[in-house]
Amino acid sequence: MAEHDLVGELDAFLEHHEPDLIDFRRDLHAHPEVGYSEHRTTRKIAQRLEAAGIQPLVLPKGTGLIADIGGGADDEATVALRADIDALPISDEKKVPYRSVNLGACHACGHDVHTSILLGTGLFLARAAAAGALPAKVRLIFQPAEEIAGGALDVLAAGGLSSVDRIFALHCDPKLEVGKVGTRIGPITAACDAIKVQLSGRGGHTARPHLTADLVYALGKIITELPATLARLIDPRSSLSLVWGRVNAGGVGNAIPDAGMVEGTVRCLDDAAWQAAPEMLKNIMESVTSAYGVAADLSYVRTVPPAVNEATSTAMVAAAADRVLGPDAVVQAPQSLGGEDFAWYLQSIPGSLFRLGTRRPGSVDEIDIHQPMFDVDERCIAIGVQVMATTAMTAIGLAGGAVHAAGPADGLIDAGDGPMVAMASGNPGGVRLTGPLLAWAGLRRPAGDASRRVGILWARKENLASCPNQASSRAGPATCLPRPAGRPRMAGGFIA
Ligand SMILES: [Zn+2]
Ligand SMILES: [Zn+2]
């Protein structure tokens, strides 16, 4: 398929396959399975992939699967697309023909939609591969157990990201109308950790607090001092918040108890702050409690880190959505303090999670995800396939069109059929790419050397050999570095 036909090819594919993908989604919706019990779901996906000549690999725990499409036999996948496949343990209260038949389970987070979109994207890309129009390998990751935050770690443990340079995922968003796509550079979802402080000390009569550890008073200090001191020690831009939800101590008004506890959550949008939080909390807690002679025990349970979208990957999503849906389709997604285990992948490699509009235009209902009445405008499935497939093609350099990357590596990259030129747009090096070079990314100053800027050049595989000598910089000549080992699609680093 010629590059400029991508949109037309997608339209033709979807004209034929959209009803089938909607049926597939309805079947999953009627048979939801919660984390690690997605056996039927896994089987259904595998059947459909195998029928298209794709060989999936089921993950070791028996649910969820990974499948590679395109490229040569020895190629390694370079772009991964991920869908989560699990349902929630709540009842489906909708009156629809595809209502859940599994009591107490419901696809109320739209993962049935994510799965159907990834299946459709995979089938389209497999067709492109069969036509010789997919020179790089794309990995489909059908991940189990997102809602219980274990599935992404299983995929990583199974080597699911080995050799992958970039990863993309979408999530249904009932606040956005169908046809809209929400993107955001930087944190899009938050870390959410569970914290519990247990105090113990000598109890006694409230008439003689000096003979006790006065545990309730100490607990009060913990409750107020921990959030207050933390807020003074952590950069406020991290949006870190410690909020208590439960407190318990004592049984009667005139006796000081010998034990007490307080529980809450720590939410955070910044990775560095998230990493630092447990140690900081422990230190604050110890300094507060040491004054009162109580023993304190802190339990800090990590769930997921913040999902931090990388700028270039996010620009690729926005360019893809712009291309297939038009310039008004892409909106800025707000930050959410909810958690999403896609964050684990973004800790390893660059990528982007985007919001897919699922709301029926004109709908007056405000039904959020995780609600028993949640449903989508099913036109979002075809739209999701269009955006996902075009994003994958953009990431491997075949979609044409312009990628506008904002953020640290700001620039406008024309990756169309003709000579490809990266224009300086907030690009201090003024790096210019010509000929077969596709894109550059990650322009930054190396640590400790303010005089240089280092970036990475990307090119089509067949042009790799001729690439490194074609970069130049308005700030002076750009020296190209050898291509790093094990990065087959990278043309080389450069110093401007
Ligand atoms: Zn959810
Ligand atoms: Zn979800």
Walk me through this protein's architecture.
With 496 residues, the chain is α+β, with helices and mostly antiparallel strands. It contains 9 helices and 25 strands. It has 3 domains: 276 residues, Aminopeptidase (3-Layer(aba) Sandwich); 113 residues, Alpha-Beta Plaits, CATH 3.30.70; 88 residues, no CATH class. The strands form 7 sheets. It has an 8-stranded mixed β-sheet with strand order 1-2-4-3-5-16-6-15, with helices on both faces. Helix 1 runs antiparallel to helix 3 and helix 1 crosses helix 9. The protein is elongated. It binds zinc ion (2 copies). The site of one zinc ion has 4 residues, from loops.
Short description:
This protein is of the alpha+beta class. 28% of the residues lie in helices and 28% in strands. It folds into three domains: 276 residues, Aminopeptidase, CATH 3.40.630.10; 113 residues, Alpha-Beta Plaits, CATH 3.30.70; 88 residues, no CATH class.
**The CATH topology of the largest domain, please?**
Aminopeptidase
* CATH architecture classification name of the largest domain: 3-Layer(aba) Sandwich
Q: What percent strand?
A: 25-35%
Number of domains: 3
What is the CATH superfamily label of the largest domain? Answer: Zn peptidases
Q: End-to-end span in angstroms?
A: 36 Å
Estimated radius of gyration: 26 Å
Q: Count the E strands.
A: 25
Please write the CATH class name of the largest domain: Alpha Beta
Low-confidence stretches: 400-446, 458-464, 466-480, 482-496
* Spatial sequence of strands, sheet with the most strands: 1-2-4-3-5-16-6-15
Gross morphology? elongated
Quaternary organization: single chain
Query: Which cofactors or ions or other ligands sit in this model?
Result: zinc ion
Helix content: 25-40%
Number of helices: 9
Average pLDDT score: 82
Structural class: alpha+beta
Biggest sheet features: 8 strands, mixed
